[in-house]
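Worked example

This section walks through a single chain of length 399. The input is the sequence exactly as stored; nothing has been trimmed or padded.
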Amino acid sequence: MSNDLTSEMIIILGTTILFSVISFFGLFILQKKEKKRIQSFNDSTVKSSSNMPKYTFIITLIFSVLFIALIWILGPLLRRFELGPDLGPTWYYWQLPVPDITSQIIVWLFYFSHQVSFWILIYWAQKHITQLREQSRFGLTTYNWIALLINGIFIYLHLLQTHIWYDGLAQDVPIWTSQGSVILMLVFLLIMQNRQRGIILGKKAGKPITREVANVFMKLHMYVFSWALVYTFWFHPMDNDPQLLTGFFYMFLLFIQVSLSYTNFHFNRKWIILLEGFVGVHAVAVAINNTLMLGSSDMWPMFLSGFIFMVVFTYLYGLKMQSSLRWVIFLAFAGFLLWIYLPFGYGRELTYLFRLEVLWIPIVLYTLAYLCAGIVFIIQKISKVDVKNVKDSSTSGNQ
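Given that input, the structure is written out below as tokens.
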């Protein structure tokens, strides 16, 4: 690496770290002001909530955009690492042809440190839920501050690790594990949100997606989501390819979401819909890039139409909306499909339409939701039967 490039990297990285430190202390000062403002309301009839989650969202969103720009700017420095040829859809391209044991040990240590620290934080938070709810009235909670700090530190460490050793976890684990973790998050959300918006067209699913089953997924979701996010985050190197940049930006949005747990912003339905739908943006970016750069099958219409289907027919039912507006959205989606498949539009072959490619992603997500819920439902039923048998045997023994 030349001295000029090294100096440029230090300046850019130093500027970004300075912004992060200033932002963190700025949030701390805003927190104190917000707490004083809320405590100043002596009239119990006046309802006031802290604006800290909103301020934090804005600042962390700006940080996310700047950090994506930083990854892109520093990308040319990574060209000293020579990657091998692309060997097909089951091959992960962004890994070194020859694995390095030191690199693998270090990236796994970073991943486990990030993962375990977050799981410990979640465990602590669930044990102090009453305290956190009280803190959330006045701004960010102890959990929020620590979560922001943990994620911020490991984001910088991952960038540093990429520029020194390059390889992520992908060197040791198959590509489908990273893709599957994101799918698992979407499936959990389908089950958890069933009571608020239903599975499709606002219709709530019955068995096996019962209230008791949804509660199980609700209790587990912070651990599962943090695993899916942290694992996927360390799976990829921080290179400046458009596919990786859109993926990391999506992960930064999810880091914001998990860091703002126990605040009112965490439950903002519009924000949740954006998070669920943005995975489609990343999927389309990957599909287009593979088509243009690698000559692979033109699959972006399948990804885009499939995720738009989920937004239109499931996700948007989490919002209150006039029926006339819903019909406008339905018609807009129908018009989009016509544009894709008819000759005067994109002109995609009608055979893809007859294969029902529009429904492939929804079918996978709905099926997995019912399958996962079904497993938990059966376990609950078996557990109830066992408990009943124990009680019956105990009663008969006493007699």
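What to look for: Residues 1-41+48-83+91-168 form one domain.
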